Amino acid sequence: MTISNATQINRRAFLASSTGLTFSLAMGGSMLMSQSAQAADPAIKLNAWITIGTDNTVTMMVPTAEMGQGTTTALPMILAEELDADWSKVKAEFAPPNPKVYGNPHYLLNGGQATLASVAVAGYFTPLRVLGAQARQVLVDAVAAKWNVPASELTTDKGQVIHAKSNQRISYGEIAKFATVPAELPKLSANDLKKPDQFKLIGRADLGRTDVKSKTNGTAQFGIDVTVPDMVYATILEAPMEGAKAENINTEEAMAIPGVTRVIPLPFGVAVIGNSVQATRLARNVLKQKVTWNTTGAIAANFDSDKAKKDYENQGQNAMAKTMDAYKRGDALTSLVNATQTIEATYWTEHCYHAQLEPMNCIARIGADGQSAEIWTGTQFAFLGTVAASGILKTTPDKIKVNQQLLGGGFGRRISPDIIAQTVVLANVTKQTVKLLLTREDDMAAARPRPMTHHVLRAGLDESGNLIGWRHRMVAENVDAIASPPRFQATGGRDYIGWNGLDLPHYDIPNTLAEGVREIRGMRVHAFRGIGAGHNKFAIECFVDEVAHAKKMDPLAMRLQLTKNDARANAVLREVAKMADWKRKRPGRALGLAFSDYHGSVSAGVVEVSLNRNNGKIKVHNMWLAVDPGIAIQPTNVVAQMEGAAVFGLSVALLEELTIRNGAPVQSNFNDYPVLRMSDMPEIHTKIVASNAAPTGMGEIGVLPVAPAISNAVFQLTGKRLRALPMSPERVKKALA
Fold first, then answer.
1. φ, ψ for residue 551, nearest 5 deg
2. CA quadruple 486, 599, 643, 629: dihedral sign
3. Torsions phi, psi of 29, nearest 5?
4. What is the reported pTM?
5. For residue 732, how many other CB atoms are within 10 A of its CB?
6. End-to-end CA distance of the chain
């Protein structure tokens, strides 16, 4: 997102007290309204963003969740940079869910407040810097008035205002004792902010994430750790699919277990209430032995992921299939008809489970009035949780208090408010404070998986071998239809999440068409780390290699040619090739390459693989990653996010598959849904390619190049193409046969 230099932060308010200064502004709503619209809407609430205490502590309200991506460090650092705060005195607290105040102005969220799509830093970067600069100016003006000196003679550094001429200095905490915040903060824009070469905090490799210490010494509190007075425990035998209803519930056997107080049939399963985790788990297991599920009203009941592949294939080839253009440039259809040579290939990806370490959990307490609630959970979308809870209680979202906790893995799973809704229902029914904990088995039964996808790609070459046409058809269930129905309807059925990455903004191909075919199978498909780009880039980057092979061209040279007019993309490709020593042969091993882009970040990856032909197991020995994240707020965290995402991508590429039969997941736990083991970890070598582009997100782009690079490396090693994920030993052996 580009924010105009003329952007003004409007609708400011203040709150001054004896304990410090609090600066407030409405970012989400006001950034998106015209000034006249804002003047006509006096109802917008202003909540504090930053407080400067008389003890020199600077506290920032962080509007996002912290799930290991580092925003509780990065966002305060952005603000502290322009404030010239003493970093050792900066603290972060989670902001309440209030999009009108804390909304992200990034175009993907459009003022919404959520943690997704790696857009926190990109969206809040300029607004937080402006606020920091405004707060700094207020402090300077207060000191100028007190000391009777021109403000222009004052400077700031590490939480102090300095007057060099008189050799005086005063801390921000001391200023907070006498300063007041004007009703109208200084009018500043992006032009008034520091230039990158003036940064004192941003870009420093020696400043680590502030959440690491608590996570390593055990003091960090995740949702699953929380206890509150007088709470009871609950678990749910989850319905295997949307619309399934429990029958033959052996309530008496479950209730006979000591500590179990209630068994409650619900539309989404059967809940057990008790005074201990152990009691509820035992009762859940007893229930599972006899309960049956009426799937008459479930769309997914007839869905079998293996049997459905034939239907997906037909849709991929059917000229009469109902398609919708996802991205279009030029006239791909005509260019393919006129091409001298055409290349075609098909690709598959399976459903994937988020496999977050912390199973879903939540605590809910209903107020005595029955119209309010307090919630403790780790969520990526707290405001959506308040909407769900208020709907259940027939009240308004402002009556729902969410105590945000650290997330033990999100990856898109904790966007959905289902765990909050379920807990509020149970608390409302029992009139008790309820802590709901899902077992891993029920977490998988309630999975919101990445969709199964089928891809048909065609490319056309002219008589000179130039790539002149590209067509990509993707067949899948539409994620937006389930995860974001309002956007799905507003866009006429477009699937932003599932189609992400289908465009080719960095490749110089004159005629391209990406189109989607919607399947309706009743699966609860949802956003997954890397969203649509995770499966789409696999197909695209494997196919680029196939086109290069048809052209008898080196895959690196092919991509360098395609990106010759895109400096950032070209640079990461050159850098990763240099890192991996691309031309050097490795006996018994081979290299594969892939390029990726995601919401403004660009990256390239090279993997070095070997293959055990007897058991079909691929071994990745080395992985080289080059990334341009724009301005790197925290370089060490950029590397950590890139590598963490690459490990996630490696697990998905080689192992992870959620099979669906009769509408329900076959796998139930990590015994039959394996994830990457430490023994399968490669050496990872990462480099940041510096650029002055605006900062972009880092939580997901590392997933994208891994799978296609592995597939491309296996082809170099064996001459056989792996066109389906995961590249399991069984699939490898089949390809080699």
1. -85, -5
2. negative
3. -70, -45
4. 0.93
5. 22
6. 48
SS3 675: coil
- The span from the CA of 406 to the CA of 530, in Å, is 21
Task: Give the confidence band of 315 by pLDDT, cuts at 50, 70, 90.
Answer: very high
Three-state secondary-structure class, residue 336: helix
Short-list 397, 369, 601, CA closest to 506: 601
What type of residue sits at position 13? Answer: A
Q: Which residue has the higher pLDDT, 523 or 1?
A: 523
Residue with tokens 């903004």: 505
Q: Which of 555, 597, 621, 563 is nearest to 705 (CA)?
A: 597
Stretch 109-118: mean pLDDT: 96
Write the CB contacts of 206 (distance below 8 Å, at least 6 apart in sequence). Answer: none
Please give the pLDDT value at position 19. Answer: 55
φ and ψ at residue 724, rounded to 5 degrees = -140, 145
pLDDT digits (tens, 9 = 90+) for 346-377: 999 999 999 999 999 999 999 999 999 999 99
- In tens, the pLDDT along 159-205 reads 999 999 999 999 999 999 999 888 888 998 878 999 999 999 999 99
* Cross-strand partners of 323: 517
Q: Cβ of 616: how many Cβ atoms within 10 Å?
A: 18
Q: In terms of DSSP bridges, do strands 260-266 and 467-477 run parallel, antiparallel, or are they unpaired?
A: unpaired
Beta bridge partners of 602: 597, 628
Q: Do residues 22 and 28 touch, judged by C-beta distance below 8 A? A: no
CA 67, CA 569: separation in Å to the nearest integer? 29
How large is the angle between the packed helices 71-83 and 120-147, nearest 10 degrees? 30
The amino acid occupying position 288 is K
Q: Identify residue 136 by its one-letter amino acid code.
A: R
For residue 688, the tally of other CB atoms under 10 A from its CB is: 20
Amino acid letter, residue 331 = D
Contact 5, 190 (CB under 8 A): yes
The torsion angles phi and psi of 352, rounded to 5 degrees, stand at -130, 140
For residue 503, the 8-state DSSP code is S
Nearest C-alpha neighbor of 595 from the set 579, 572, 578, 575? 572
pLDDT of 1 higher than 70: no
Confirm if 460 and 341 have CB atoms less than 8 A apart.
yes
What is the distance, to the nearest Å, from the Cα of residue 583 to the centroid of all Cα atoms in its chain? Answer: 35
For residue 34, is pLDDT > 70? no
pLDDT tens-digit series, residues 47-70: 369 999 999 999 999 999 999 999
3-state secondary structure of 660: strand
Average of per-residue pLDDT values in the chain? 93
**Token couple for 400:** 């729902």
Instruction: State how far the Cα of 349 lies from the Cα of 535, in Å rounded to an integer.
Output: 6
